């Protein structure tokens, strides 16, 4: 316990490396589930949460770029590990000092692992683009604190990679995208894993050592998918794709973690629990698991959380905030499950802050 407390203090106060008073910070790569405001600054993007009622349960309640009413899963996991919340890469107040103190979040609504995913949104940062932006960040930091201190800073960082749902929902499963007729379930998964594997290796070559990859939830049960069937049931095919993505990604991540020098790469998902919540919401304190809290009457499917939308009475009782994204309460549950799974080797009583600073715990 004492050691853990000491480690926490180190994480919070930071420590000196090669003349750099560097803290442990996060670098987040993702899609709308992790976006904290990048798309706000992409003037042509159609994936934008910069309007009411997004953000209604966050800070001053004004839209902040998050695609939910409150916190994202990455917000909650970072908070529980005692790490600062990294600002959006596009935030105009982002300076070298801000980066050294808080890290950077590159996540962008509509993004995928694949470059071509989410093309209909016109503008978004796909994962390769996000990694390119990260390289730009590294150049800035090198010129600020020098190569040696910079190398240490980036190797001590915590990395999150959380994409994949758009590669299905806004690519493979949508006939307007050529990937949908070029591939079948199996060849598409291979293509995705080859691409993700190359991206994770690239991140390792850039210094990422402690990295978490998030899996997918039962994305066939998002309201947007349910309205595709006459009965409003979950799309079984879509859920099966999510499960096989999770299995393949888990294998990939474990493989890389054992192969790449000094890498502690972990995979975490909350598929099973979210699936249970959706089947049996009351058991988990929810009252609705099939429709969005923020909706625009019967005009569906569409991304219909807009200023004229009507909100549900109790936002904490809805699993889904809009047609696509979980609510703050659902995100909290997802984050807790993921922490338990990711760090279960550290004990059995729930979230432990230790992994935030522990060097490569056994997987
Ligand atoms: C993906 O996009 C990046 C730029 O963001 C580019 O450098 C790369 O060549 C592209 N990869 C493929 C396979 O198209
Ligand atoms: C791995 O860690 C050791 C000890 O910290 C270090 O000397 C070595 O350079 C690291 N290798 C890589 C590839 O990060
Ligand atoms: C839950 O939903 C039912 C109707 O579906 C309603 O009667 C009840 O008041 C709701 N409870 C809460 C706490 O919102």
Automatic annotation (TrEMBL):
Residues 1-22 form the signal peptide. GO terms for biological process: lipid catabolic process. Keywords: Hydrolase, Lipid degradation, Lipid metabolism, Signal. It comes from the Eukaryota. The keyword Transcription does not apply. CDD domains: SGNH_plant_lipase_like (cd01837). One of its GO terms (molecular function) is hydrolase activity, acting on ester bonds. Pfam families: Lipase_GDSL (PF00657). Belongs to the 'GDSL' lipolytic enzyme family. This is GDSL esterase/lipase. It comes from Camellia sinensis var. sinensis.
């Amino acid at each position: 316990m004492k050691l853990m407390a000491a480690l926490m203090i180190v994480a919070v106060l930071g420590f000196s490396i090669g003349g750099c008073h560097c803290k442990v910070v996060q670098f987040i790569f993702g899609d709308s589930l992790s976006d904290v405001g990048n798309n706000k600054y992409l003037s042509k993007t159609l994936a934008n949460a910069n309007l009411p009622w997004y953000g209604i349960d966050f800070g001053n309640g004004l839209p902040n770029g998050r695609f939910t009413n409150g916190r994202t899963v990455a917000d909650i996991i970072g908070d529980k590990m005692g790490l600062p919340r990294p600002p959006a890469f596009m935030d105009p107040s982002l300076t070298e000092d801000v980066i050294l103190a808080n890290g950077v979040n590159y996540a962008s609504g509509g993004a995928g692992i694949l470059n071509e995913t989410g093309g209909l949104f016109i503008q978004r940062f796909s994962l390769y683009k996000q990694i390119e932006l990260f390289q730009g960040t590294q150049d800035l930091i090198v010129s600020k604190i020098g190569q040696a201190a910079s190398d240490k800073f980036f190797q001590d960082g915590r990395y999150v990679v959380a994409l994949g749902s758009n590669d299905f929902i806004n690519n493979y499963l949508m006939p307007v995208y050529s990937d949908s007729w070029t591939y079948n379930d199996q060849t598409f998964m291979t293509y995705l894993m080859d691409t993700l594997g190359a991206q994770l290796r690239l991140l390792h070559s850039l210094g990422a050592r402690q990295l978490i990859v998030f899996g997918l939830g039962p994305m066939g049960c998002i309201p947007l998918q349910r309205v595709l069937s006459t009965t409003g049931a979950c799309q079984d095919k879509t859920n099966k794709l999510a499960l096989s993505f999770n299995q393949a990604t888990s294998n990939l991540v474990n493989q890389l973690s054992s192969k790449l020098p000094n890498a502690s790469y972990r995979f975490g998902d909350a598929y099973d629990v979210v699936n249970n919540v959706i089947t049996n919401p009351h058991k988990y304190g929810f009252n609705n698991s099939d429709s969005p809290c923020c909706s625009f009457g019967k005009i569906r499917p569409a991304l219909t959380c807009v200023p004229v939308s009507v909100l549900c009475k109790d936002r904490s009782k809805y699993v889904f905030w809009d047609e696509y994204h979980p609510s703050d309460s659902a995100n909290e549950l997802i984050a807790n499950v993921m922490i338990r799974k990711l760090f279960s080797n550290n004990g059995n009583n729930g979230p432990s802050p230790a992994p935030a600073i522990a060097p490569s715990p056994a997987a």
